[in-house]
UniProtKB/TrEMBL annotation:
<feature type="repeat" description="WD">
    <location>
        <begin position="620"/>
        <end position="653"/>
    </location>
</feature>
<dbReference type="InterPro" id="IPR019775">
    <property type="entry name" value="WD40_repeat_CS"/>
</dbReference>
<feature type="repeat" description="WD">
    <location>
        <begin position="759"/>
        <end position="793"/>
    </location>
</feature>
<keyword id="KW-0812">Transmembrane</keyword>
<dbReference type="InterPro" id="IPR001680">
    <property type="entry name" value="WD40_rpt"/>
</dbReference>
<feature type="repeat" description="WD">
    <location>
        <begin position="1118"/>
        <end position="1152"/>
    </location>
</feature>
<feature type="domain" description="Novel STAND NTPase 1">
    <location>
        <begin position="20"/>
        <end position="376"/>
    </location>
</feature>
<feature type="repeat" description="WD">
    <location>
        <begin position="932"/>
        <end position="973"/>
    </location>
</feature>
<feature type="repeat" description="WD">
    <location>
        <begin position="1067"/>
        <end position="1108"/>
    </location>
</feature>
<feature type="repeat" description="WD">
    <location>
        <begin position="719"/>
        <end position="751"/>
    </location>
</feature>
<dbReference type="Pfam" id="PF00400">
    <property type="entry name" value="WD40"/>
</dbReference>
<feature type="repeat" description="WD">
    <location>
        <begin position="842"/>
        <end position="883"/>
    </location>
</feature>
<feature type="repeat" description="WD">
    <location>
        <begin position="664"/>
        <end position="697"/>
    </location>
</feature>
<feature type="compositionally biased region" description="Low complexity">
    <location>
        <begin position="400"/>
        <end position="411"/>
    </location>
</feature>
<feature type="repeat" description="WD">
    <location>
        <begin position="1022"/>
        <end position="1063"/>
    </location>
</feature>
<dbReference type="InterPro" id="IPR036322">
    <property type="entry name" value="WD40_repeat_dom_sf"/>
</dbReference>
<keyword id="KW-1133">Transmembrane helix</keyword>
Length: 1182
């Protein structure tokens, strides 16, 4: 029997202050009575703060976003200190903002009491304050203040390292107070304590369910989940029954994973679809984009929101639902968790990231110009002015459209104007001043030319000069435009659009950015898009012969598409008649009839025997709510419909023009999907209560007793499908999990865990070996289910601009059709599911990929990860990389990995303070040789000498050790060159093995003569970078050393005379720490990878003047780069948990774009991304 759904009370007003849970809001001193679970940490902080009074050094409190740092300081520390010190204590809490010194002066008032200053959100010093001098002044003021008061700086963990740039904070960094994840006991107190204090009760089992969802039940969990827990508790309280918080209310809220997104979506719906673009503009203005760390919230003055066209009622509604806060005259997002947990907001940001970054930089630069007395030296010129102008014009156009016509429904997907609202007065004045200066310069040039025309010779000379200048101006303009379009290409959520934009950029000007964007198209799958619908596409299905597909859309239409030639797919016809959104469009077994299902409570049958002239046959009425799905019996003659009214109806359609209902089956919850078994004997329905019901419909007029399959989670079942053999069933849960069932035994036989995102549709390939899952995270995941007990993720298709709503395999299994809420359908080549892109992505790690190394023969890649493992990959075919083995044994993050010169051994180093030596002569069966345990801190690097007889290890303990590998199973310490130093991040032997380079956290490089490894001799010790040296590599001839540093540069050093290294060049361009560097074997190119998420490829034809050849945009920090021996493939390691192979073949990329991207860029897309140039799509066909 299917589980019953309990009734859930309506949502209470969130403005009710009686709630003991604060949602995303920070707990303040007034909330101390309901602040539970942090008593031990509070006592520790009280002791640390009492020590800090007058000590001369601030106390740094750090922890990940969402760990509860601000709450423990405000609701824990401050009330506890006030209780102990009573009238002696004066507390000031501030956030730095754009001008931290001014904020400090404003908040401090003279007084005789002892002062506790809490600087909350200290990361704003780095995100909101753009002036480095102002930052240093503020830090100096805090240091001075700490000599007479207690100063507490609360900083997010991902910004903790930024503090090292300020000497006044270095001592405090040695002993920070860390706010880590809460234990199970503490979480239980945080859940139950506030309820008890407020006189509320929790339904038995609710706490355990919450703890299980948090992931605290005996397994490691992240502190970042606390705001999600707090919001889920608030949402559950809003749906409480009398004085009891129930499990039904919790589930209705969306649970830990989805409560926040659910609340945000409900707020948006309450405002109305016409306000969505305004809400988008408001929210993205409140996000600070960061290319080196996660995006953060930022405070914006209410006065600056007015020019953006944000009505106060929109702001007030988000404040009412506690998603935004307003303090004094500023607004901000209540917590960064909203940025991470609300898919729609993430999509708004990522879809318009390039424009948003330009817009953000404009705001910062305009403020700097204002503070510097409007000095013209700070004004934009050339490409930066062009980029800012383009964004300003979009803003003006979008704002004008909204003002004249009102916001368009559906515009929130990220079209024009999705960049964050209008300009402030200062920003407009800044741009106006830059334009005036450019006009003045142009006027001066013209005046000079006019004066020279008095003399004929001068006139001719001036004419030639002007012609050259015109050519140069045109070239510079083209380069600026191409660079801007390349940025849009890299930031486009729609991979097909991004690919075409990259080709447009490359044709306009062959800039490094355009070349990199074009090469990037080879690194990810691209689906051929089908454009035509005017709303989200809800469904896609193939005609049985595979030559036609049908799509259903919320624009109330279905469309038929000819896909017989995949490179020239085209729309054939449009089916109109439904009064509301369509959710299904399915072909009959003979392909002559199409059934559609709609929100208008009806299903319809259409004669599509002539696809160009579809004809309505009949309307199926009777359901009292949305018809959610429809399915034909494979035997023909019977149609099933299911509805949100909880009923399944079976129809006799022997004559499709006169359908007759023959059976009605009732269930207790909404029904989301229906499917027949291949033999037509069984019918499965998917229910919102998480159950799947199987009916025997051998006699459709008298269905047999049902069998109910209950999913093990608390999600609803959204999709159901039979495998081609009819023996297995797959169901998709709103939790993201996929379940495989044995139909005969009615039991679950396998689970694919998914990634926690709502799965809309699941479908088998024709051979039953693959399962495709379409999800709300804008991906389709392909699972190998050959062994149903152990489903294996094969690949993930990305490149959608919104939720993927459905997927369907072609009858031959070679193509996958998908539909998406971005208003498009797409066709993907999945003839080889492991090869969906020209160059492979390697995504099996569950933590960041911190380092990589390619074997000398180029056939094997090793990756080291935060998941404590090293993986070996076969990359002999770079388009079809496959996992060979996993090296386990480290007990903490693996930081480094390196092959020996013969490729038979591997060294890995870890945060567990060990290095390990591995025999990888058989990559599919590696064995551990030895574990080196000498270091007392993280092992940052390891490298073999070219002859393989010695290995070097360096560590954060400041030590370098050389080890004798005569017996690789028992390495012997040979020497420890030099005294203990700062962190030693990098080590590298020269190609002849006679020299060793070591890179230090002090910015120094030390060169050692190790021709006698037992007695190293120092050759040189020189300052190479202004901050840590993070990576080193030699050119093949050993004459050049390349270094990379956290100062954002790479540098080339001439080692012809190693006792006197000479700097050859400084490679500028990265905006974050450069953590990796690699030469090609011939030394003609160099790759640098940085925490700004980019890889730069440098042309070293003239080493004294390196030129950027290409800029590749990655998804996250780039932690490692390495070329294959032929230099044609580059491998990169990413903080997002993947390694990626990149092709260096620009011509291949240029040819491939139009082969795979489908319909050409539209005129409206062209006007948005390529303004000012005549429409000239790069791919005319399709």
């Amino acid at each position: 029997m299917a589980p019953r759904s309990r009734p859930v009370p309506p949502v209470a007003e969130t403005g009710d202050e009686a709630s003991p849970y604060r949602g995303l809001a920070v707990y303040g001193p007034e909330d101390a009575e309901v602040f539970f679970g942090r008593q031990e940490l509070t006592r520790s902080l009280v002791a640390r703060v009492r020590e800090a009074f007058g000590s001369g050094r601030p106390l740094i409190v750090t922890g990940p976003s969402g760990a509860g740092k601000s709450s423990v300081l405000r609701a824990g520390l401050i009330p506890a200190l006030r209780h102990q010190m009573a009238e002696e204590l004066s507390c000031v809490v501030l956030a730095p903002g754009a001008d931290p010194s001014a904020e400090l002066a404003r908040r401090l008032t003279p007084g005789g009491r002892r002062l506790l200053l809490v600087v909350d959100q200290f990361e704003e010093v780095f995100t909101a304050c753009a002036d480095e001098r102002a930052r240093r002044r503020f830090v100096a003021e805090l240091a001075a203040l700490s000599r007479s008061a207690a100063v507490v700086a609360c900083v997010r963990a991902d910004f903790f390292g930024h503090c090292a740039s300020y000497p006044e904070l270095l001592e405090a960094m040695q002993r920070p107070a860390i706010v880590g994840p809460m234990t199970v006991t503490q979480l239980r107190a945080a859940i139950e304590g506030p309820a008890a204090r407020a006189g509320l009760s929790l339904e038995p089992g609710l706490t355990d369910l919450l703890l299980e969802d948090v992931g605290a039940g005996g397994v490691e969990h992240s502190g970042g989940v606390l705001p999600l827990l707090s919001h889920a508790l608030l949402a559950t309280w809003q749906r409480r029954t009398d004085r009891t918080l129930t499990m039904a209310a919790y589930r209705a809220s969306g649970g830990i994973a989805r409560a926040l997104a659910t609340s945000a979506e409900e707020t948006l719906r309450h405002l109305g679809a016409d306000v969505a673009p305004i809400a988008r503009d408001l929210l993205v203005r409140l996000v600070h984009l960061d290319e080196q760390t996660d995006d953060t919230r930022k405070r914006v003055a209410l006065a600056d929101l007015a020019p953006a066209g944000v009505p106060r009622r929109v702001l007030d509604e988000f404040v009412r639902t506690r998603l935004l806060t307003v303090n004094e005259d500023e607004a901000e997002i209540a917590h960064e968790a909203l940025i991470r947990a609300w898919p729609r907001l993430r999509n708004w940001i990522e879809t318009n990231r390039v424009d948003l970054l330009v817009r953000q930089r404009l705001a910062e630069d305009a403020e700097t110009w204002q503070r510097q007395g409007r000095d013209p030296a700070y004004l934009y010129a050339d490409s930066r002015l062009a980029a800012a102008q383009a964004v300003a014009q979009k803003a003006q156009k979008a704002q004008g459209a909204q003002g004249a016509q009102g916001a368009r429904p559906g515009a929130e997907a990220g079209g024009e104007g999705g960049w964050g609202g209008g300009l402030t007065a200062t920003e407009r004045e800044f741009l106006d001043a830059a334009l005036r200066r450019r006009r003045r310069r142009t006027w001066v040039v013209r005046q000079v030319i006019a004066a020279l025309t008095v003399l004929l010779l001068a006139a001719v000379t001036a004419g030639v000069l002007a012609l050259r200048q015109t050519g140069e101006v045109t070239r510079q303009r083209d380069q600026a435009v191409a660079t801007q379009i390349a940025g849009s290409a890299n930031g486009a959520a729609d991979a097909s659009l991004g690919a075409q934009l990259s080709l447009v950029a490359y044709r306009i000007a062959d800039t490094p950015e355009a070349r990199g964007a074009l090469l990037g198209t080879l690194a990810h799958p691209i689906g051929a898009r089908l454009i035509g619908h005017r709303g989200p596409v809800e469904w896609v299905s193939y005609r049985p012969d595979g030559r036609m597909i049908a799509t259903a859309s919320s624009d109330a239409t279905a469309r038929l598409w000819d896909v017989s030639d995949l490179s020239r797919a085209r729309a054939v016809s449009e089916l109109k008649g439904h009064a509301a959104s369509l959710v299904r469009a399915v072909f009959s077994p003979d392909g002559r009839v199409l059934a559609t299902a709609s929100v208008d409570r009806t299903a319809r049958l259409w004669d599509v025997s002539d696809p160009a002239r579809p004809r309505a046959l009949a309307t199926l009425k009777g359901h009292t709510n949305k018809v959610s799905s429809v399915a034909f019996s494979p035997k023909g003659g019977v149609l099933a419909t299911v509805s949100y009214d909880g009923t399944t109806r079976l129809w006799n359609i022997a004559d499709p023009a006169r359908p007759a209902q023959i059976a009605r089956l009732r269930q207790k919850d909404v029904l989301n999907d229906v499917a027949f078994s291949p033999d037509g004997r069984l019918l499965a329905t998917a229910s919102g209560d998480g159950s799947t019901t199987i009916w025997d419909v051998l006699d459709p007029a008298r269905p047999g007793d049902p069998t109910v399959l209950s999913a093990p989670d608390d999600g609803g079942t959204w999709s159901v499908t039979f495998d081609p053999g009819g023996l297995r069933l797959a169901t998709a849960s709103t939790t993201g999990a996929l379940y495989l069932w044995d139909v005969t035994a009615a039991k679950r036989v396998g689970t694919a865990p998914g990634r926690g995102f709502f799965v809309y549709d699941v479908t088998f390939s024709p051979d039953g070996k693959l399962l495709a899952a379409a999800a709300t995270d804008a991906t389709v995941t392909l699972w190998d289910v050959s062994n149903p007990a152990e489903p294996r993720r094969t690949t993930t298709l990305t490149g959608f601009a919104n939720t993927v709503t459905a997927a369907a395999f072609s009858p031959d299994g070679r193509t996958l059709a998908t539909s998406s809420a971005d208003s498009m359908a797409r066709l993907w080549n999945v003839s080889d599911p492991a090869r969906v892109s020209y160059r492979a992505g390697l995504g099996e790690h569950t933590g960041p990929v911190n380092a990589l190394s390619i074997s000398p023969d180029g056939r094997v890649l090793a990756t080291a990860s935060g998941d404590r493992t090293v993986k070996l990959w076969d990359v002999s075919d770079p388009g079809l990389a496959r996992s060979l083995s996993t090296l386990s044994g480290h007990t903490d993050i693996v930081e480094t990995v390196r092959f020996s010169a013969d490729g038979r051994r591997l060294v890995s180093g870890s945060a567990d303070r060990t290095a390990k030596l591995w025999d990888v002569s058989r990559p599919a069966a590696p064995t551990l040789l030895a574990t080196i345990k000498k270091h007392v801190n993280v092992v940052e690097s390891g490298a073999f000498s070219p002859d393989g007889r010695t290995v070097v290890t360096t560590s954060r303990d400041g030590r370098t050790y050389l080890w004798d590998l005569a017996d690789p199973r028992a390495p012997k310490l040979l020497s420890s060159p030099g005294e203990a130093d700062n962190w030693l991040n990098a080590s590298m032997f020269s190609p002849d093995g006679r020299m060793l380079a070591i890179g230090s956290g002090t910015g120094a490089i030390r060169l050692w003569d190790v021709s006698r490894p037992a007695a190293p001799r120092l050759l040189a010790n020189y300052s190479a970078h202004t901050n840590s040296v993070l990576a080193l590599t030699y050119s093949r001839d050993g004459r050049t050393l390349a270094s990379a540093g956290s100062d954002g540069t790479a540098r080339l050093w001439d080692l012809t005379r190693p006792e006197r290294p000479a700097q050859v060049a400084v490679l500028l361009g990265h905006t974050g720490a450069v953590g990796s560097v690699a030469f090609t074997a011939d030394g003609r190119r160099l790759a640098t990878g940085a925490r700004d998420g980019t890889i730069r490829i440098w042309n070293l034809a003239d080493q004294a003047r390196p030129a950027t050849w290409a800029v590749l945009a990655g998804p996250n920090w780039v932690n490692g780069v390495a070329f294959t021996p032929d230099g044609n493939v580059l491998a990169s390691a990413s903080g997002s948990g993947t390694a990626q192979l990149w092709s260096m073949d620009v011509e291949q990329a240029r040819q491939r774009v139009c082969e795979v991207s489908g319909m050409a860029i539209t005129r409206s897309e062209w006007s948005q991304y390529v303004p000012g140039l005549p429409y000239s799509p790069p791919c005319q066909a399709g």
